[in-house]
Amino acid sequence: MNTTPHCSKCQTEMEVGYLMDRAHHHTRAPATWVEGEPVKSYWTGTNISGKEQLEVNTYRCPKCGYLESYTR
User: Fold this and answer.
1) CA neighbours within 13 Å on the CB side: how many for 33?
2) Within 13 Å, how many C-alpha atoms sit on residue 59's CB side?
3) Whole-structure pTM value
């Protein structure tokens, strides 16, 4: 995003951040959007091969706590 969004609930300028996912052996990474429905995999938990994946940016309103997430 080129501009910082304003909260749709109280119109305050939001601050950028991210939601953290915990992966194998408790490694940490920003949340990722994956196209389509989840497909279970015995070995990896969820099969994401061949699917578009985008990092998720999340904005938080410092006044009311509302969260809004976007991808590029």
Assistant:
1) 11
2) 17
3) 0.74
